[in-house]
Design goal:
Shape: globular
Order of helices and strands: EEEEEEEEEEEEEEHH
Strand content: over 45%
Length: about 210
């Protein structure tokens, strides 16, 4: 597990079609899935041709991480701030195995309780909240959570090569997972922090 906090400058970035300011390679909205579907640890399903695996989330007990019981993932709507279906996790995590490495990941979320897992490749962070991870370097990637509302709504952006991403927690909903297959230019990386803020504000006020 290798991660550290770094200082990142932000600036204004125009967002086209709600893309978090990254070039789209794949967009996972979960809208083609049946509302009300329920998944348990060990289940595997697909959305937008991306395999998604369900696991129990983990919490620290001293220096040991242990899986949490009562884990489930449901397909529902109305929590993460997007339209249509989303994934709602209770003591669970979902792992996205992308068909090729993505060089930028963005998603919307709503966190309703303490306890979050975020894993990229073999590198795992366990923290109280996603917002606490803003600025962390995780393996070869950097994590941005530029804004979280009082209701727990926010945007997560991961910059760097991502082959698999796992996210979950005690009570977490996610929607609109966007991955870019285009290697971003350095100038673009400096702008990504504020792009999540703009995306979230746009979602809250509507078109």
């Amino acid at each position: 597990m290798v991660f550290r906090r770094t200082a990142v400058g932000v600036a204004t970035l125009l967002i086209v079609a709600g893309s978090c300011g990254i070039a789209q390679g794949i967009v996972i909205t979960f809208d083609e899935m049946d509302a009300g579907s329920l998944f348990q640890p060990g289940d595997v399903f697909s959305s937008s041709s991306v395999a998604v695996r369900v696991d129990a989330s983990v919490l620290p007990l001293g220096s040991t991480l242990y899986p949490v019981g009562g884990s489930s993932v449901s397909v529902a709507a109305g929590m993460a701030g997007g339209g249509g279906n989303e994934l709602q996790m209770t003591n669970a995590a979902v792992t996205f195995d992308f068909p090729q490495p993505a060089f930028g990941i963005c998603l919307q979320f709503r966190q309703q309780a303490r306890g979050i897992n975020l894993q990229i490749g073999n590198d795992l962070i366990v923290a109280d909240s996603l917002s606490a991870m803003n600025g962390w370097v995780l393996g070869d990637t950097q994590v941005f959570v530029p804004f979280t509302s009082a209701e727990g709504l926010g945007a997560l952006i991961v910059v760097g090569a991502v082959e698999s991403l796992s996210i979950g927690g005690t009570s977490l909903a996610i929607d609109n997972v966007i991955g870019s297959y285009v290697v971003p230019e350095p100038a673009t990386l400096a702008l990504l922090g504020s792009s999540g803020l703009m995306l979230l504000k746009r979602r809250q006020v509507g078109p």
